[in-house]
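Example protein as discussed:

>
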Amino acid sequence: GNGSDVSCGACACCRSRSFAQAVGDERLNVLVIQRARRLGRHIVNFDHVLALLRASGHVLDVTVMDLSVDGPTADHSGNRSPVAQLLMMPRFDLVIGAYGAALTFSAFMHSGVMIELFPSLPPSSMMLCNDGWNANPYTVYGGLAKQSGTRHVCLPAGLHAESETLPQWRDLHIDVDIDRFSSFVSSAVEWLLADRYNLSGA
């Protein structure tokens, strides 16, 4: 479900052994991308997503890229050129965001993790977001992750019936399944801590 209890006690990543070990200088940098509502694929429970991540604050440093201002590409503020945006990506370990061009920047991480969020999909489009880690090697961003050495997982908001009256899925907003999202974050944190700091969850 999309429960709002995202305290550390409810967050699976907080209970992992490797997470509990990370009490020193171990830090993971997370970039969370929010799209403009008018563009579709806007995360409607964004506050819950951020609360879950920030509940892990002793390990996760969270940066938000807000695309709610009009503009053609990732940072619409005009404060960063596209080159500057590319150059900042190696500092991030985990990128989270909706299907869209801004996820392209994840290719410039150093063997990081991408959690790709989708709106609810009709059965005919479910192949765009297969369940499981590295299960989408032929989709746009799953393929990009494979080519760039990034671990990738895709999380759809649900499944809806085919309908000619509903907007196209690209225009729908995203209500993130917080329970499943927490599980994916937990797995990402376990792997990243082991990779970056040799902390094992075993």
